[in-house]
Write a structure and sequence with these properties.
about 80% helix; single chain; about 150 residues; flat
Amino acid sequence: MKSIANMIVAGAQRASCAVSSAQHRLERAVTGTPELKATYKAVYGLTAALVLFAPMAHAQQSLGDSMNTAGQTVDAGKTLAGKIGIALAAVFMVSAGLMMRRRSNEGDQSQITWGKIGGAVIAAIICGAGGALLLRAGASVGLQSSDYGTLPGS
């Protein structure tokens, strides 16, 4: 009986040593050395520089072309935001109508407060007004295309 216990203890000690050794090897493989961290920083810096500056270097656009592109992008984003505002207003009004319908029913579904309904209506008004403002004011307030960088007469 004593020999079986000794064998179990010896096997457990060997398993513990093997797990400890594997953990140590894994930590050495995962934990970076200062040289490896410096290499990673250099690679990340080069990658960021290429991502940020290479498109501009290869675009071969003048400053005026870049401003025109920026203006068109802002106009497209403003139009999209206006359409999203109008769509959210419609969603809030439909949800307010559904809440009013549930409140009119009897039973557990009628526990909706007027504050929730009013909040949905106010949210619809705010989203609709913001969307309409973005869509209507875009023509008069938006960025204009620029003549900078173009040759006269072309």
